[in-house]
Amino acid sequence: MRKFFHLYIYSTLIAFAFLGLWVYITNFTELLDPVIFPSPEIVVIAFGKAILDLFKGFLSSMGLLVPAFALALVLGIGGGLYFGLHHRFRVILEPFFQTFSPLPPTLFIPYAIALFPTFKSASIFILFITTFWPIFLGTIQGVLLIDKPYWDNARTIGLKGKDLIFKVILPASSPLILSGIGTSLGFSFIVLMMAEMFGAESGMGHFIQYYTDFTQYDFVLAGIIFNSLIILAIMIIFEKIKKRLLFWTNLKSEAN
Predict the structure, then answer these.
(1) Rounded to 10 degrees, what is the CA torsion of 98, 99, 100, 103?
(2) Which tens digit of pLDDT belongs to each residue from 113-137?
(3) Which of 96, 48, 31, 14 is closest to 218 using CA atoms?
(4) Residues of the chain with pLDDT > 90: what percent?
(5) 157: which of 65, 102, 226, 249 lies 20 to 30 Å off by Cα?
(6) Quick one: which of 254, 241, 224 has its CA closest to 73?
(7) Could you tell me if 204 and 223 are in contact, meaning their C-beta atoms sit under 8 angstroms apart?
(8) What is the separation of C-alpha 209 from the centre of its chain, rounded to a whole number of angstroms?
């Protein structure tokens, strides 16, 4: 706990400053419309009333995000390793990678709706596209940027096949792979919320859209705060996992 406050003391102070400003503006001034910007105590009451629905929405959202992200991890890392290690095929298909990877996933929504039988399967497809490209391209770059001594040492001790991949290639390219995974995770929440706000019957984004339609902005703000906390928690957990997997880079930075 002491370490946490040491690291995030200024972040905590800024958060309390914003909260105090919110309390002051909504309770002691008329700068904001009280319907659209209710006071914190009203939002807290709404939060308590909706907590079960919020967690149900979270579970529904994870039902879309988890399978899409898992598929993107398998195909993104697997495909990135293949094309990173096979120069000829990479050169042939690289123009297509550069063409399709920058396209916003939302462009494919009409085809997803037309081709997939349910909203869930269409959403998983769109989320897969969102998360696939950063992981795939990050893996390729990670393989290409492996230092030559790693390859020389692997050849010297005769590493091949799975041993070469799991003992040399993946560890050496893991910083860029994990960087791509982090980027994918951030993008996935943006697309997930958009999809749920305009087509879902449940989920974290649907919760906000539902109460927006009824102009119940205390519940809207409760949903926004809940979503922000969930996303923050997931990203912190990912960063912890990333640091654990890249422990050797932390040792380098401490040595310097």
Answers:
(1) 110
(2) 899 988 889 999 999 999 999 999 9
(3) 48
(4) 70
(5) 249
(6) 241
(7) yes
(8) 21
